[in-house]
């Protein structure tokens, strides 16, 4: 597996490859709007990528041309994974020509699935699966979902291009008559072509999308990638997830995992590894001064496994005095994943309790009213603090001198997802006391609270329930919402523009597949979670991606209830499970927002049952 990662194979065999951690944190190239416009061209190609000691072919945003705006680089862009970071402000316009430079779909980088069968109806990822057809989604943005904007129904085939135009809202009218700008915060972009989303995102096609507002946003006033006097440093941590076959049974080469391997139940197939990387690196080094406050923008761009973060101090006697790095044989975890001898035993709660204090100040781009001290003292469920695939968390860190490890604690529902060190934090040098953790922050005006239910924009107009389920039969594994798989011609949910709705999501236990978590994501409008398995959350936090938990007891369905306002934009968009293999297999629904809920009729005859 990986250094600082406990093995998860069925027989705990010694690994054959040992990736070497990268050193100082690498920062992806940045392009930002100037005078209200960012006009760029991005090209997608096949390319060879090295992460640790694994070298493999993948798809990546390898070409970048800036027609209008500012760039952090000079000359020719040479990035791979993650893609370049895009920065905009409320009122800016993004013009993006996306150029698909991939070969035709019958020449995909994904070989036939040797010796494996898919877990569902997708058929595996081999030639002819349209793996090289793509599009572009701005995850978390409150923008127009129709063309030429954030239209996830576009099909940009090999050799084709498309000119996106996305306007970042400013001075939008709220239900109470006040005005609101798009929230400054941490977002991201990735492809969203149905049927190939997991293989493209899982291969590294993702990048940060940052909305800045230094005039109104408290965090942007306090922190910057290049801080000036009185500001703290901001660090961008794009956490990706790679699942690789280290020895393809056809040709012995390292390659991206196929869908058969992604969806495999039980221990991972032979020679398949699954791990996180940060900005395309393994275990990079981050540096702080003692007492210095830094902002970590953490983006979970993975396709599958939840991210359970803690910061653990390395005992002084386990630190190499010459490098300030942990000694090579130091194990921060003291526990392992499943072995062939029995079920997995992960004491994550005990390890999390050892985490040094840090503060969470925003989730999914939406700033809190006050910093939340972490680890949380009173969560009603771990889904309150676990970052799901697609989710983001902005953290403030302030440590005393020493060496720390930012760790992912592992997750039982994912073939015993192994614990892993994400990054090493070295705190040394002259103390920096110029900043303190802020006591209060200003939440964005676009997402006001529901504290006063009589206030305009707070009265609930409609309620609905959705059932997420996995079932297995002779035809395979089915990933459904309300007993149906996705169909682009069937409108599953129709909402009136401006409506306030209360939704309950049920995570169904099925006799054939049991229980599993599902990270729910909806485009365009975020939501406020009000109940987790029937209990009020410890913190009122807005989200655009949230884990639907399993039930509190064996055999009981898990539930999440939330409130949302469907504001400003009419059109069709989607909700789905952000375990992207589940989405590609059909765990997605089409919704439409129209004035007076006058949605188009569905063409249900084109939608076969799963």
What can you see in these coordinates?
It is globular and about 70 Å long. The strands form 7 sheets. Strands 13, 14, 15, 16, 18, 20, 21 and 22 form an 8-stranded mixed beta sheet that branches. Helices cover 4% and strands 36% of the residues. The relative contact order is 0.14. It has 610 residues and is mainly β. The protein has 5 helices and 35 strands. It has helices spanning 197-202, 218-222, 259-262, 348-353, 580-584; strands at residues 30-32, 37-51, 54-68, 70-71, 85-88, 93-100, 137-139, 161-167, 172-173, 179-180, 185-190, 207-211, 223-224, 232-245, 255-256, 272-278, 285-288, 294-300, 309-313, 358-363, 366-374, 392-397, 402-408, 420-427, 462-473, 476-481, 493-496, 500-507, 518-522, 527-532, 542-543, 545-548, 558-565, 571-577, 588-594. Strand 9 (172-173) and strand 10 form a beta hairpin. Residues 133-215, 475-595 form the Plastocyanin-like domain. Residues 1-23 are annotated as: Disordered. This is Multicopper oxidase domain-containing protein. Keywords: Metal-binding, Oxidoreductase. InterPro entries: Cu-oxidase-like_N, Cu-oxidase_C, Cu-oxidase_fam, Cu_oxidase_CS, Cu_oxidase_Cu_BS, Cupredoxin.
């Amino acid at each position: 597996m990986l250094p600082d990662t406990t093995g998860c194979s069925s027989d705990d065999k010694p690994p054959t490859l040992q990736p070497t951690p990268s050193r100082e944190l690498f920062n992806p190239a940045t392009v930002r709007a100037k005078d209200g416009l960012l006009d760029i061209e991005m090209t997608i190609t096949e390319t060879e990528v090295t992460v640790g000691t694994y070298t493999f072919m993948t798809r990546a945003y390898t070409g970048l041309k800036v027609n209008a705006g500012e760039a952090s680089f000079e000359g020719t862009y040479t990035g791979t994974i993650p893609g370049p970071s895009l920065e905009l402000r409320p009122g800016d316009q993004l013009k993006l020509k996306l150029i698909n430079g991939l070969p035709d779909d019958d020449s995909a980088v994904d070989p036939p699935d040797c010796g494996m069968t898919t877990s569902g109806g997708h058929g595996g990822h081999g030639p002819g699966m349209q793996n090289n057809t793509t599009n572009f989604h701005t995850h978390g943005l409150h923008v127009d979902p129709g063309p030429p904007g954030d239209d996830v129904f576009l099909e940009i085939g090999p050799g084709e291009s498309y000119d996106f135009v996305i306007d970042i809202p400013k001075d939008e009218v709220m239900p109470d008559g006040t005005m609101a700008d798009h929230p400054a915060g941490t977002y991201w972009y990735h492809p969203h072509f149905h049927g190939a989303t997991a293989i493209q995102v899982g291969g590294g096609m993702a990048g940060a999308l940052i909305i800045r507002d230094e005039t109104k946003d408290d965090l942007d006033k306090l922190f910057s990638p290049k801080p000036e006097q009185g500001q703290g440093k901001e660090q961008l941590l794009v956490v990706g997830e790679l699942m690789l076959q280290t020895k393809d049974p056809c040709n012995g080469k390292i390659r991206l995992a196929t869908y058969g391997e992604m969806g495999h139940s039980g221990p991972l197939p032979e020679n398949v590894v699954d791990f996180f990387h940060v900005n395309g690196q393994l275990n990079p080094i981050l540096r702080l001064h003692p007492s210095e406050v830094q902002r970590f923008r953490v983006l979970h761009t993975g396709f599958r496994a939840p991210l359970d973060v803690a910061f653990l101090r390395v005992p002084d006697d386990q630190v190499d005095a010459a490098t300030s790095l942990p000694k090579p044989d130091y194990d921060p975890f003291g526990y392992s994943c499943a072995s062939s001898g029995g079920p997995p035993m992960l004491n994550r709660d005990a390890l999390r309790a050892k985490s040094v204090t840090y503060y969470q100040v925003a989730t999914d781009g939406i700033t809190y009213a006050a910093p939340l001290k972490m680890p949380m003292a009173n969560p009603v469920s771990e889904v309150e603090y676990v970052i799901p695939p697609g989710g983001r968390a902005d953290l403030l860190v302030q440590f005393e001198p020493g060496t720390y490890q930012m760790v992912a604690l592992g997750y039982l529902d994912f073939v015993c997802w192994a614990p892993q060190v994400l990054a090493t934090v070295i705190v040394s040098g002259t103390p920096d006391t110029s900043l303190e953790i802020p006591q209060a922050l200003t939440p964005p005006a676009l997402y006001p609270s529901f504290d006063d239910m009589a206030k305009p924009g707070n009265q609930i107009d409609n309620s609905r329930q959705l059932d997420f389920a996995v079932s297995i039969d002779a035809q395979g594994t089915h990933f459904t919402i309300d007993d149906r798989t996705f169909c682009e011609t069937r409108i599953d949910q129709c909402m009136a523009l401006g409506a306030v709705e209360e939704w309950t999501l049920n995570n169904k236990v099925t006799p054939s597949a049991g229980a599993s978590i599902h990270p729910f994501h909806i485009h365009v409008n975020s939501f406020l979670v009000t109940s987790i398995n029937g209990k009020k959350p410890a913190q009122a936090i807005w989200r655009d991606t949230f884990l639907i938990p399993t039930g509190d007891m064996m055999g009981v369905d898990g539930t999440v209830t939330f409130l949302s306002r469907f504001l400003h934009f009419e059109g069709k968009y989607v909700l789905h499970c952000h375990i992207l293999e589940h989405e590609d297999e059909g765990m997605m629904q089409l919704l439409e927002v129209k004035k007076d809920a006058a949605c188009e009729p569905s063409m249900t005859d084109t939608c076969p049952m799963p």
